Amino acid sequence: MNGQKTNVFMPALVGGVAAGILSGIPVLNCLCCLWIIGGAMLAAYLLSKDSPLPLSSGDGALVGAFAGVIAAAVDSLLSIPFQALNAAFLNRVFEQLAEYNKEFQSNWSLWINRSAGPFSVAWFFLGLVISAAIFAVLGALGGIIGIALFGKKAPTPPRGAPPAPQAPQPPAPPQP
User: Fold this and answer.
1) In terms of domains, do 86 and 76 share one?
2) Are 22 and 91 found together in one domain?
3) Chain centroid to CA 105: how far?
4) 20, 85, 147, 170: which has the fewest Cβ within 10 Å?
């Protein structure tokens, strides 16, 4: 991180928890990808605020990816209690579709009720791994955007100022 020791864990934790909560709540989870990018941008902002030096886009990608993985964990844990609520909502949607379209298959409720059945640890971890991979990519994107928007810029010399002095070059070794 540009030769400095900046703690990326706390900004990633704050941004990841915020994004995970917002993407795990029903109705708000419609904007899931936006919440992940926004949480990573928050993490990048917090990181740049605490850093005395300018940060690179790689620093933003790193903190954003960590925030995305944390958001995936929070989202997965938060979605467990809402599983039955989501299944009931989907049942109502498909019942309404079946009323308007007689050709709509009526066995959707079996599929929805089967997926809302007892908690499965294997499916939970599979969903967590897939979410972590997708959220890490979205988080890296959000972190890069966050550093570009909120990061400190390297100072530029004023126009017309003489160039900065260069370090002297060591003499070349003699040629035999």
Assistant:
1) no
2) no
3) 37
4) 170
